[in-house]
Write a structure and sequence with these properties.
With 605 residues, the protein is of the alpha+beta class. The protein is built from 25 helices and 16 strands. It has a five-stranded antiparallel sheet with strand order 1-2-3-4-5, sandwiched between helices. It has a five-stranded mixed sheet with strand order 13-12-14-15-16, with helices on both faces. It has a four-stranded antiparallel sheet with strand order 6-9-10-11, with helices on one face.
């Protein structure tokens, strides 16, 4: 059995795609919002029986490999590696080309995975990690939590990990690319500068991608002023791995690998600031919590979360620093269509979710259950610190709230909060409305950075695929109705080849779909996708019959073919006029006029 076939037997496309797209049962299939183009009505379908997916909206579709290629922006070799790792399938690399294409990232994954195991073993067994074990114990971490999150300790030495990774057969330069070693500059005399461990005397928190692979680390200093950091050093409390070929902080959500099922189950993601807050939350049973790792969320991180839920709950301190740190993430989430709530943690109770849970998990549950709509939260927080007798304070309130209010997509919601703001400020509602309208107008004028282009199928290809699927589905029942089609109606080679084989079988009343699929194994996956696309279309248009679809799509396709032929004839007519070829001009003009009369026959109202 080929590795790709073995992977398909071990991975269910519904389960895998469901990690990216929120799917709901729809008859025998599953339906959700397409991750490859913006849509409000779900047109993305997954078939557990056929183990394929298809989007009626943009025309994309395929098997589990095609999904990974489209979603992760990779080619087949890397998609194969991702799915093989997930399925536990050992790949035998067949070519040097494949090895060159995939080895660097594979090496970085392997080194980071070995590093996580190394640091975890040091923490668990080495005498030098006694202080680290004591620190984690004081923080309240259970032993099983330390193991499941692969927490570790980097020894207070410049070459411990360097020596370890060399013994494992890796080059120092590879460990530098993985972000775990630092190369010293060469000496002025031209000598080798040498290498040393990036992380020393730090508690190690592995960073996992959404698939659970270790891609880097967040490291917390254990002792300030240690020999490795220098006496009196003000070394940063937390240090992250540098950006590498497998780690980008803008596209990593801490804890998502462990939280994605909980996010789907609760239909909400809780966003906290620190890694410890995430781990403590999961330890206490709050399995939909993820972390920003101390930085404001980016568009890339929010895109990851949107695959699992459109509902976010941000949890942070209700002080000035907390409001400022999260404001941009809230606005960005709103602009991407998220529903945003905010769970407040007053400093008088606890400084963060970790401390709140250590005091009483019920307090954290209460904070989440009492999370407010983001505007209600900001109204309360902003007006709590303003003297509304001061005109400058009123201007500040408007400046703080109007940008958020303008992000509300529903005009009724905007009007509700606009009235509330005017009432709170004791000013004419029209004044606040004028400010809001200026904000909305300015945003419309502002150029929006275009999203990466979605690789959609052209209207021509979509029509050809739909017509061919209808022909396969109904050809045996209505053989005479397909005589109108000709091979030049199909411009895509595979579709044209299938048509040329199917049409004579239909005309001879000798077409059997199952037999045809069985006799063309190379075409079978593509043809099954065509037929599944037709099922998708029928499911999304329950009031439309097969006959109505056939008339509509055949007419549209013939209309496109006729227009294409007329365009070609128009070019030939102009050429004949320029060269004075009267007889050819007469023939071409007659043909053009005949096609022109055909347009009304295929007009689709």
């Amino acid at each position: 059995m080929l590795p790709s076939e073995e992977i398909k037997t071990k991975l269910n496309v519904v389960d895998f795609v469901g990690e990216y797209v929120k799917l709901k049962k729809s008859g025998a299939n599953f339906r959700g919002l397409c991750p490859f183009h913006d849509e409000k009505t779900p047109s993305f379908m997954v078939s557990p029986a056929k183990q394929i997916w298809h989007c009626f909206g943009c025309g994309l579709g395929g098997d589990i490999f095609e999904f990974v290629k489209q979603m992760e922006g990779v080619e087949f070799p890397e998609a194969l590696q991702i799915l093989a790792t997930r399925a536990g399938v050992v790949l035998v690399r067949p070519t040097i080309e494949y090895q060159k294409a995939t080895d660097e990232k594979k090496t970085l994954y392997a080194i980071n995975e070995l590093a996580a195991k190394f640091y975890a073993k040091v923490l668990a067994e080495s005498p030098v990690a006694a202080a680290a074990r004591e620190y984690l114990g004081k923080r309240g971490f259970k032993p099983e939590t330390v193991v499941s999150w692969q927490l570790g300790y980097a020894p207070n030495d410049f070459h411990t990990f360097e020596n370890f990774i060399i013994k494992k057969g890796y080059q120092k330069s590879e460990a530098v690319k993985a972000g775990l070693l630092i190369e010293k500059p060469a000496s002025p005399a031209g000598g080798d500068g040498g290498f040393y461990d990036r992380f020393r005397d730090r508690v190690m928190f592995p960073l996992f991608d959404q698939h659970g692979r270790v891609v880097g680390f967040t490291a917390r200093i254990l002792h300030q002023g240690s020999p490795s950091t220098g006496s009196g050093s003000t070394t940063a409390k937390y240090v992250n791995s540098p950006e590498t070929a497998i780690y980008s902080k803008s596209y990593l959500v801490y804890g998502l690998h462990a939280a994605k099922n909980g996010i789907r189950k609760n239909d909400a993601a809780v966003v906290v600031e620190g890694n410890v807050d995430v781990i403590t939350s999961h330890e206490a049973g709050f399995d939909n919590v993820v972390g920003s790792s101390g930085t404001a969320f980016t568009a890339g991180q929010l895109e990851l979360l949107k695959r699992f839920s459109q509902n976010l709950i941000f949890a942070f301190d209700v002080d000035v620093a907390g409001l400022t740190a999260t404001r941009r993430a809230v606005e960005l989430a709103l602009s991407q269509g998220f529903n945003v709530k905010i769970a407040a943690i007053p400093k008088s109770v606890a400084k963060d979710p970790d401390e709140l849970i250590r005091r009483d998990p019920a307090l954290w549950r209460g904070a989440l259950q009492g999370a407010k709509n983001f505007l209600d939260f900001y109204f309360d927080a902003i007006f709590a610190n303003l003297n509304l007798e001061d005109s400058q304070a009123k201007k500040q309130a408007v400046a703080e709230l109007i940008p958020l209010l303008s992000l509300l997509p529903d005009p009724l919601d905007r009007n509700h909060y606009l009235q509330r703001l005017a009432l709170k400020l004791r000013v004419d509602e029209k004044l606040v409305l004028e400010v809001l309208n200026r904000r909305l107008a300015a945003r419309e004028r502002k150029s929006v950075t275009p999203r990466p282009p979605v690789v959609k199928k052209t209207r021509q290809e979509l029509l050809e695929r739909r017509v061919l699927s209808l022909m396969l589905r109904t050809g045996a029942e209505f053989p005479d109705e397909w005589n109108i089609l000709a091979d030049d109606d199909f411009t895509f080679l595979l579709l044209q080849q299938v048509f040329l084989e199917v049409k004579p079988l239909i005309q001879n009343h000798n077409f059997d779909l199952e037999a045809f699929l069985g006799s063309h194994p190379k075409w079978q996956p593509e043809l099954e996708l065509l037929l599944f696309g037709l099922e998708n279309e029928l499911a999304l248009s329950p009031d439309v019959s097969l006959d109505e679809l056939k008339k509509q799509f055949v007419s549209e396709l013939k209309l496109l073919t006729t227009k294409r032929k007329m365009s070609e004839l128009g070019n030939r007519i102009r050429a004949a006029e320029q060269t004075g070829q009267r007889e050819e001009l007469r023939v071409l003009t007659t043909e053009f006029n005949n096609l022109s009369r055909e347009l009304s026959r295929f007009h689709v109202g």
